[in-house]
Amino acid sequence: MRVFISRPVPQGWLHLLHGKVDYEIFPEDRLLSKEELKRHLSEVDGAIVILADKIDKEVMDAAPNLRVISNYAVGYDNIDIEEATRRKIMVTNTPDVLTNATAELALALLFAVARRVVEGDRFTREGRFEGWSPVLLLGTEIKGKTVGVIGAGRIGREFAKKAHALGMKVIYYSRTRKEELDKIGAEFVSLEELLRRSDFISIHLPLTPETHHLIGKKEIEMMKPDAILINTGRGAVIDEMALADALKRKRIKGAGLDVYEFEPGITRILLELENVVLTPHIGSATEETRKRMMEVACENLLCALEGKTPPNLVNPEVLS
Ligand code: NAP
Ligand code: GLV
Ligand code: GLV
Question: Is 281 known to be catalytic?
Fold first, then answer.
């Protein structure tokens, strides 16, 4: 069996593959062009790809032997699932193992924006700190505030529980009510009510046709003037231009973003604003989580190649 892995990773993360499959690792830590992707997938039975690799019909056409696409991510909006299913290609992802890391990053962004941590760091490094002042870099406190969680999946619920533990009032919007959140007294509300009531809003949605631009100009206009918006889901859930414009006009207080509509591109205005904290899609980027994710990706891949049902099969329709 031949396998392609689209990014270099530490050898120790790939121990499950040793002696089981013949694998090739792309040697450079950069995005492959479509042509490169097609060429490297042309003779393999399986692939481990990253969320920036677009696996569409054209790429699948170039990979006639492909039986499994193991995505090294929980989100799989980079893969044409319908097309894969039609070709009986299994698609898998890496849920659960990155839930805590991503919820922690959302909280880190929330704290950073609310307490102006990054702005304070810039200020200090620039040599502008001339001593304590009663009014220097005043932020806003988290305890006692209302946080609105959009998308109460694995990460959204973990974030909600952490926010509750910090003394925040949690309200949430999702497709279905979650018993797990009833237990912490979280209220299941409509999107509009969430936008109107929240001091902080944290997005944990996948990108789908339904969630694309779920947060646009109209939704931002419903937010409180001092609202802070956090996004660790997918960039295109927000109309990034509308958000940048609202932040520039100070229509809302701030934002903490880990994901962008046109990654790795970022709407220029955002780069110039003080009330925004930007991280480069590092939600799951901890040593322990990235290693576990690769083990899960390898396990999914091996199961599929051995003709078993992988633990994290995204398109079970392939089995029918
Ligand atoms: P998940 O368990 O599938 O949670 C997603 C939740 O979104 C689902 O529970 C679902 O709610 C809700 N949802 C989906 N479509 C919706 C819609 N149209 N309206 C309202 N709610 C909707 O996935 P997860 O493991 O928590 O991951 C969530 C996303 O986070 C991933 O898809 C990925 O894009 C992103 N992510 C980013 C990073 C990062 O590095 N920044 C890391 C990991 C994940 P119901 O249960 O109510 O149907
Ligand atoms: C990261 O964004 C993921 O979906 O795992
Ligand atoms: C601040 O440093 C204080 O002592 O109040």
Answer: yes
